[in-house]
Amino acid sequence: MLFRLPSFFRDLWYTRGMIIKGEEKTKELGRKLAEEAAPGAVYALVGDLGAGKTTLTKAIAEGLGVTEPITSPTFTIVREYDSGRMPLYHFDVYRISDPDEMFELGYEDYFYGDGLCVVEWADLIAEILPEETRVFRLSYGGEEDERVIEEVPLGSLI
Ligand SMILES: Nc1ncnc2c1ncn2[C@@H]1O[C@H](COP(=O)(O)OP(=O)(O)O)[C@@H](O)[C@H]1O
Ligand SMILES: [Mg+2]
Questions:
Q1: Cα(85)–Cα(74) distance, rounded to whole angstroms?
Q2: N or C: which end of the chain has fewer CB within 10 A?
Q3: Whose alpha carbon is nearest atom 3 of ligand 1?
């Protein structure tokens, strides 16, 4: 897909892995990512069950100043939180069987909207993620409380 080439080259240099020791470090990263977010940003989180996607999302919410509790959106696909410095749209697309469900949901209003979208299991809907999406891959580390979190190119999901 030619139109992805520029971001592919841009992405080459920022791919890096980070060993995270302890949940608090994951939370620090989440709060930092909240600071970096501008309206219309999309953060795609990929990684196995228990890798830390929801933990990271909760810290992003905290960093935005969201005061409502973050609950799992598993049965609703998306939940919206409006108490922070910009809206947070938390997606969990694990149970999506067809990307058409995203169209029915009106996903474009979220992805190209006024808030920050955080998408758990984003690899399942890789083809509809905006070109500017930041992708974070979370995996298990060597110890119980270790994780590896790396920012990877969007092209690596497709
Ligand atoms: N370094 C770490 N970062 C994030 N979570 C960790 C870490 N170490 C242990 N954990 C635990 O791993 C689990 C991650 O769960 P969760 O965030 O719900 O994952 P996911 O949403 O990817 O399924 C939590 O129980 C958390 O306490
Ligand atoms: Mg989760």
A1: 24
A2: N
A3: 23
Residue nearest to atom 7 of ligand 1 (CA): 23
Ligand that comes closest to the CA of residue 51:
1
- Report the topology of domain 7-151: Rossmann fold (3.40.50)
- For residue 25, the ligand closest to its alpha carbon is 1
Q: What is the pLDDT of residue 15?
A: 52
Percent of the chain with pLDDT over 90: 80
The whole-number pLDDT of residue 13 equals 46
Evaluate: CB of 47 within 6 angstroms of ligand 1: yes
Question: Which residues make Cβ contacts (< 8 Å) with residue 12, sequence separation at least 6?
Answer: 153
Domain regions of the chain by residue span = 7-151
| pLDDT of residue 38 exceeding 70 | yes
